[in-house]
Fold:
Amino acid sequence: MTPTLQACLVISAALFSIGLLAALSRRHAIFILIGIELMLASAALNFVAFWRFGPEPLQPTGVMVAIFAIAIAAAEAAVGLALVIAVYRHRRTTNVTELDDPTR
Structure:
């Protein structure tokens, strides 16, 4: 079974939808970061799919952009996790609805 562009786009749309749902519906900052990472992974999958099924995939531009996106996602995850740890040490919670309260 060979993958097609349509199959790759459906998988990418599903990944993006799951990531968006996780980022918007969860209260904990870790789950929000995981949702954002899923959305970035779906974007990387789109770059590779459009490169692979394009008219002439001679130069690996889609793969290079996907690798760049993965590197940016890793840096974003590291900074985001460091921020979550710093907030947890200060507020003792990762619940984002409780972080709005300035009296705590």
